[in-house]
Amino acid sequence: MINPSLETQITIDYEHIWHPYSSMHSKSPVFHVDSAAGVYLHLSNGKKLLDGMSSWWCAIHGYNHPRLNQALEQQLQQVAHVMFGGLTHKPAIRLVEKLVRLTPQALQSVFISDSGSVAVEVALKLAIQYWNAKGEPGKQRFATLRNGYHGDTMGAMSVCDPVTGMHSLFNDVLTQQFYVERPKSRYGEACDEGDTHALENLLQQNHQQIAALILEPIVQGAGGMYFYSSDYLLRARELCNHYRVLLIADEIATGFGRTGKLFACEHAPISPDIMCVGKALTGGYMSLAATLTTTEISSTIDNGNPGVFMHGPTYMANPLACAVANASIELLLESEWQARIQQIERKLTELLSPCEALSQVAEVRCLGAIGVIEMKTPVDMASIVPQFVDAGIWVRPFGKLVYLMPPYVISDAELEQLCEKLVEVLGRQAD
Prior knowledge:
The protein is of the alpha/beta class. The chain has 13 helices and 16 strands. It folds into 2 domains: 31-64 and 335-430, Aspartate Aminotransferase, domain 1; 70-334, 3-Layer(aba) Sandwich (Aspartate Aminotransferase, domain 2). The chain has helices spanning 6-16, 54-57, 66-76, 90-102, 116-133, 154-158, 193-206, 230-242, 295-303, 319-334, 337-352, 381-390, 412-430, and strands spanning 33-37, 40-43, 48-51, 107-113, 141-145, 178-180, 210-215, 219-220, 226-227, 246-250, 274-277, 289-294, 361-367, 370-375, 393-394, 401-404. The strands form 4 sheets. It has a 7-stranded mixed sheet with strand order 4-12-11-10-7-5-6, sandwiched between helices. It has a 4-stranded mixed sheet with strand order 1-2-3-15.
């Protein structure tokens, strides 16, 4: 079919495409994107939407950026893809050099994969294989925080909250992990001693079975957009050291400036044993992720049985993705990103504050380039998303959370428009 009409395309989509977290036969409306530029999505019906989502938090430089376009075009003339088994290439080498330089100093070994969920799978496998090589094969389970989210693949699902998370249907087939309540102490507060008692008790009683503690530093993302005390990270690091449990920092959502630090671990600061990055790594252009670990862990695995790390994605270290990741990181570091994130936080705090007076709102909270409005009851997605679209903004809530994670390049005027329209829609819901 050559150049099918928009109506035909929508019909094909409706009849054959399964969108994320959706039903094939009872669908929420989908909106057909024709193009995107800057902080705007241009729909095929001529409507223009101001993007508040950064395409699930990754398009930090906005859309159709000439610098990122150029990186892809130049790499395309060299090699689009080549297997990484037994071969290497300049974009991957340059990317790894950047990641090693920017992350905590102890993280010297990098495994490049193709999505955030896979980066978490790699982290879990690294931890298990490390302890096996150390002669402690019984350490095969994981500790994790309640309300956490780490991905949709089987291993990653097992360390998501089995009650409040999205994967309770699969609980009986997933490895049963150890869960500890998330800290009650909020970001900016000292950590209450009671917050770490549960974690200490868990590690004390079960450290012989636990390979690692995995957590999202400072910000729990898709599990609740919750901001917790940086002191908790310090104490968690101390407890992991004491009980010989590795610490995995899932920075897939928080990495590359979103919280006001380049990586959320820097708020403590701590150095994890394993770190996962993804999402904003390529500026939202292509799927790419990485898992970093220490030389101690990588050399222990190398010297154990079978003497290699047992993982190898087909599209590992795709040259196009690595090339655009290099350009994205360079673009970020060359900008006044810290000042911009601070300004976005100030504006979000100011502009979302009217929501605190709405009867259906439980709490408004902001950190870095993240603004969250927590409702008292779950939002009606089928109703509210079209209202946002009618208002000219792209906001996609989940559960009780209406939130913004705009591109860093959004101007103050655009951010004001985004927030004002969001507040207006929520105000009508209250009426």
